[in-house]
C-alpha cells in the first residue's frame, strides 16, 4: 500500500527481464537502446520502425558509431532486404574501422565502512554520500568479533543480518566483512587495497584522529584517498538503543 493506493510488482522480475532483454540483461551495455534493442520484439510495427530510423539517424549524426550499429543490427534483422539499411551499415562499418580504439576508463570503486547496527537514516545518508563519490559502492561490515574486542559486546544484529540488509539496498554494489580493524594500520590498508578501492569514505567524526591519519598515509602509497562524509544530526545507533531501553523501563 502507498498514499496513492496499491502498488503491484512482479514476484519474479529476473525471468521477466530475461524474456524482455535476453539472458545477459544484467551486464551493463552502454550501447543498449531500450525499445529498438529489446530481444522480445515479435512484431516490428511502423511506429517501432520509425522510432528505429529516428534513433539510428540521431546516434549517427552525434558520431556514436557503435550505438548506431547496434540499432542498425535490429533494424536489419526485421528489414533484411532494405537496400538503404545495407548501404548505411557498410558506411558505418567503414567509419568504425577507421576510428581509433576508445580507451575505457575504469570505474571508481569507493569503500564505506561501519557496523550498520540497527540500520537508520544516518547510515543511509552516509551510504548515499559514499555512492556519489564514485561508480561502484563497496561496503565493509565490521564483524561481530570486532565489537566484542573493542567495546566488550557484539552488535544487536548479527553480521549476517547486517550484511543481508546492506546487500538489499539498490545503491550498494558489493558487501564484504572487514578483514582487519582500522586500528591495525598495515593489515587494514592491505585488506582495502585487495578490493581495488580508489577512495575510502569515513565519517567526519574520525577526521584528524591518530588512527585515520596513519591509515590515510598508508593508503596513499596505493593511490587510495580518504574522504570524510558529513554526519547526520540527532540520530545514532547508541541513541536508538537508549530509546529502546527507555521504552522497556
UniProtKB/TrEMBL annotation:
Report the SUPFAM superfamilies cross-referenced here.
Answer: Nucleotidylyl transferase (SSF52374)
The keyword Iron appears for this protein: no
Highest taxon of the source? Bacteria
Keywords of the record: Nucleotidyltransferase, Transferase
Q: What Gene Ontology terms describe what this protein does at the molecular function level?
A: nucleotidyltransferase activity
Q: Quick check: keyword rRNA processing in the entry?
A: no
**Where does the Cytidyltransferase-like domain start and stop, copy by copy?**
112-242
Q: Which NCBIfam families match?
A: cyt_tran_rel
What protein name applies here?
A: Adenylyltransferase/cytidyltransferase family protein
